Amino acid sequence: MADIPLEGGIPRARRLNPTLARYLSAFRTPKGVIGLSILAVMSLAALLAPVLFPGGYDEQGREALTGISAGHIFGVDEFGRDIFVRSVYGLRIDLSLIFTAVPLSMAIGVLLGLSGALSEHLGSAVQRLLDVIIGFPGLILGICLVAILGPGWPALFLTILISGLPTAGRLARGAWLAQQSREYVLAARVLGVSRPQLLVRHVLPNAMDSAVVNAAVWMVVGVYIEAGLSIVGLGVQPPTPSLGVLLNNGLRFVTQSPTYIVGPALLLLLVAVGFSLVSDALNEAVNRR
Amino acid sequence: MTSTEPLAPVTAKDVPLLRVEGLRTEFRLRNGGVKAVNDVSFDIYPGDVLGIVGESGSGKSVTARSIMRMLRPPGEVVAGSVRLGGEDLLALPEREMRRRRGSKVAMVFQDPQAALNPVMKVGDQIAEAMTLHGVDRQTARRRAIELLDQVGIPDVRTKIDHYPHQFSGGMRQRVVIAIALANDPALLIADEPTTALDVTIQAQILRLLARLRTELGIAIAIITHDMGVVAELCTDVVVMYGGRTVEKGTVEQVFEQPRHPYTAALLAAMPRLDDDRIGQPLPAIPGAPPDPAAPPPGCPFAPRCRFTEDVCEHEPPELLQIGTDGQSAACFVAQRATTDVSVRDPEPAPADISVHAAPEAAVADATTPVLEVRDLRIDVGSRRRGLFHRDPPVYAVDSVSLSVHAGRTLGLVGESGCGKSTLSRSIVGINRVSGGSVLVDGADVSTMGQADLGRVRSSVQYLFQDPYASLNPRRTIRQSLSEALAFRGVGRREREEAARSLMEQVGLRAEHLDRYPHAFSGGQRQRIGIARALARQPRALILDEPVSALDMSIQAQIINLLEQLQNELGLGYLFIAHDLSVVRHLSDTVAVMYLGRIVEYGDAADVYGNPQHPYTAALMSSSPVPSVSARTRERIVLPGDLPSPANPPSGCRFRTRCPIGPLVNPERTICTEIDPQLTLTATGQRAACHFADNGKETE
User: Fold this and answer.
1) B507: nearest CB among A4, A186, A189
2) CB-based burial of residue A237 (10 Å sphere; 0-12 exposed, 13-18 middle, 19+ buried)?
């Protein structure tokens, strides 16, 4: 065999799993760094809220509905509570919702979407079910769930989880359909790889890119769903704050204290910008060649 | 419409139509510049057909785009001049250049599908080419009809209002050529004009280009990787390698006495239709073409060259005239004219190799074939099934029988759409079988249940065409091989050893097991594909166009490897290819497929020596031969296109294109009425033709 010459010029292999390396490379771009920093600060603040503000979100002052001042940078609400403190506690609710509901939703969605790899009929049936979910706008779905479960965290969690399924499912199914006729999938089948193994080893890793980018996008959507339901009063119930609840209150007192709404809205905006930047950076990283 | 300028006389050899001098094109990337074209010079005279030939990455397409000034950033011409009739195209402002494009120089691209606008009628697309240059609509339409007629589109007055999808691939390429000719260009640049087409269609297009050159007196520059196309059509040739011109001269000079070691080695390494080296390894060129991003400092071919000296590795040789008549080569060794670079005589074959052909073969025929297919039918039509509706069956493969014996190779030849890949994929259970049987080692596995599939997969493995698509990009080579080994029941601990020895068996280094596919070149990936197939210790391999996606200089390496493995392991090969010369080199028996049927089946020597079916004869004579002496051979160019398998012609399926059938001999009505069966012919092979023995003499 020695007489068969080697073709030259093989670049060195990288140590890190290249998929992971590519995702991480997103956080070396300006977009990724800024987005990640915003999210890190927000998450840290939310996580440490009980330490930073040991008084809790219910501590009342003497005045109510004053505007922005040096002591209360976001102002004071109708019960004399500091809106900034309430916003940070609100962030806790929002982030805890999306950091649990969205990844779970993506995972379930991707698995549902890939069910077509096990059986074509199962795949189509699942896809039709997911289409039904698309038929319900997020708000209607939320109202239905609230009607069943009562307003609160569980209803919000389920609303976000369910409304994320169709997109994740479709992306995963798209990835499967694109890959099933690729030669490496055929090659694996010829070797005798069973369908579940095929799914896990060959299809899933190649469907990851779109799922990861999509997850970052859905984080923003999750925050909006929470805000939307809370604005109509179906979110978490007083006195617990969430960004949506604060927006709702801000709207009610917009004539007495126009600046009430500014702080929470700003935080909501920052969360959205943070996730958008991260999803953008990830998207560019996975499509870089 | 008449051209405003008189055509240059074809004889005016002294004034070049196009003179390219010292052309350098770079791609400026973040991590440095890539010199795609490095100091390229050539002339094209009126009436010339210049072939620019090279492998992928040799810079041939970039040269063409540089001439047309159609480079996209970061590509940029950094030096040199391109003079068309004395005017430097590179110095023109973009507005002026736009006027020259199409009217003075026109271009034909590789993929006719992508070159035409799918939502515009072809007539309008041709007319648009003219109205852009100031011709009024009525004249343009009249001229469009003329042009379509000229490029050989039948029934022009209806076809002119058809959309591109209503044309076949070959017809679309004719339309693209018509568009290029619309403004009477003096020069036509064709970038791989026939690569996407089948051999018989390629022959049509090559013939068309040759005719246009003599009729219109235009000069043509053909960019191609196919030496056969160059030998067939061109008058002059420029051989490119690693961004440089390594050799240039007339076709006769270069093919008869190549002066550059690369050209010589390449011509010697290519399998040929008239090959007398059957059963011998090809003199393959070692190594791989240089990476354009990191070219060697000296001669680009130095790392692979038999004659390399110190000087070759340090400075690039200049392109200097060698001999008398304008042939030049960029090679220090050749320029000294003391060494003959040609690889005329293949080295004598090692004694053990010729053994496998004769005596073993007789034994093999008597034993059970490792793989056999009997009357196989494959329906690809009724896949879409509604509740109340089922599409009619479309048999991509219709009653095909084949057998592959251990240690022998069955070559399966046919054009795209003939069903050869469908057939091979059905054998391994990727496509569903709808009739007939598949036998592995004599056992019927046609039902393709779990047990059957297990049996198939432990004895028959598949090597895919595209080495870039057949390896999972997210898995290391070790993971890919281990997966295959696990199926054979190799324990976790033994897998390491087994994977290493597989790598060595296919000529790769075991240290590279932990790399991902992107770190390997095309030829190396194909070796990995072979290793993965061998991991299950199959008795037969299905090779689906295993070398057609590889560079010319790599093909011979893989062919040799396959041959060597067959000798060592006694594998049976089902070798599928459209390249007749590769099939000739590897195969013991050959089956020719046309529209889902086998039309000729027999010993390779018989089929190639005396084709009995007119389709086989036409295939042979259509396939370009990289040799000047083959230019004078008589050629059978088939008319028309492959019919759709959904609606095959009655009687003989080939009759709509047959050069000896009812098209030319109307009294042969039997062809339209009775479907010919494979029958034994006088020369020993079987052919499905009512007039089998007349195949050759009738044109």
Assistant:
1) A4
2) middle
What pLDDT digit, counting tens, does each position of B554-594 carry?
899 999 999 999 999 999 999 998 888 889 888 999 999 99
Cis peptide, bond prior to residue B16, ω within 30 of zero: no
Residue A13 confidence (pLDDT): 44
Strand order in the sheet with B75-84: B32-44, B18-29, B75-84, B87-88
Alpha carbon distance A49, A56 (integer Å): 8
Determine the length of chain A: 289
Using alpha carbons, select from B568, B580, B640, B27 the residue that is nearest to residue B281.
Answer: B568
In this prediction, residues A186-204 reach a mean pLDDT of 85
Q: At what angle do helices A138-149 and A204-231 cross, to 10 degrees?
A: 70
Q: B93 is written with which tokens?
A: 């402002």
Question: What whole-number distance in Å separates Cα of residue B545 and Cα of residue B119?
Answer: 34
Which chain A residue's Cα is nearest to B565? A1
Query: B147 and B181 in contact (C-beta within 8 Å)?
Result: yes
- Residues A81-126 have pLDDT tens digits of 889 999 999 999 999 999 999 999 999 999 999 888 888 888 889 9
- HEC assignment per residue over B505-566: HCCCCHHHHHCCHHHCCHHHHHHHHHHHHHCCCCCEEEEECCCCCCCHHHHHHHHHHHHHHH
State which amino acid sits at residue B183. N
Average pLDDT in chain A = 86
Amino acid occupying residue B295: P
Token pair recorded at residue A71: 């002591």
Residue from B421, B483, B555 to probe the interface with A (highest A Cβ count within 10 Å): B483
Q: DSSP secondary-structure letter at B260?
A: S
| Minimum CA–CA partner of B488 in chain A | A191
ipTM > 0.90 (yes/no): no
- Residue B388 is predicted with a pLDDT of 65
Q: Which residue of A has its CA nearest to B288?
A: A7
